[in-house]
Model the fold of this input.
Amino acid sequence: MKLIKQLLAIATFAFAATGVASAQTANEAPDQLVKRISSEVLNTAKNDKEIQAGNTRKVMDLVETKILPYVDFERMTALAAGRYWREATPEQKRALSTEFRTLLIYTYSGALSQVRNETIEFKPLRADPADTEVEVRSQVNMTRGEPVLLNYRVAKTASGWKIYDINVLGAWLVETYKGTFNTEISKGGIDGLIKTLAAKNKQLANKPLATAKK
Done:
């Protein structure tokens, strides 16, 4: 689980960084954009002593500035909730999206402090230039062991490319959470799921980032 969360952090931070120069790179292919900027983001995680030490506030600030604007949390939540999303009220949708976003923030924040000497190698993009949704394929070269394949789905929106799903070790993040969501909803409905996520987030808020678990 620690490896999966670490890879999620690498993938998300690499892609989230694309928002830094979106105005100047509107016509750049998503994989080229990620490749060009990701090294800077990873270097920050690797070389910042406070981040490496698990400085909660600094890590959380970095997550909120680099990830929140460039990840489509509402779409991720809707996909994870599946058919139940259509049955939810607007208030429930907002609450569920907020709690899911918070959970992912804790996941990414906890993993970020564990990034060391990993590097990312991107595969050729298999997409038409006119496509508005693409799958960017890459592999993470680990300091020990075999490279790990890592893919992520991104969509072009009015505000630029945004990530909405990540595949780590053959499992899509949204699909993984969909099973958990369905189980909780079957027991207590949408409100029950929201309550469960809120309790989990409260628990994670009281733990050091280095020990936070999914």
About this structure: DSSP finds eight helices and five strands in the chain.
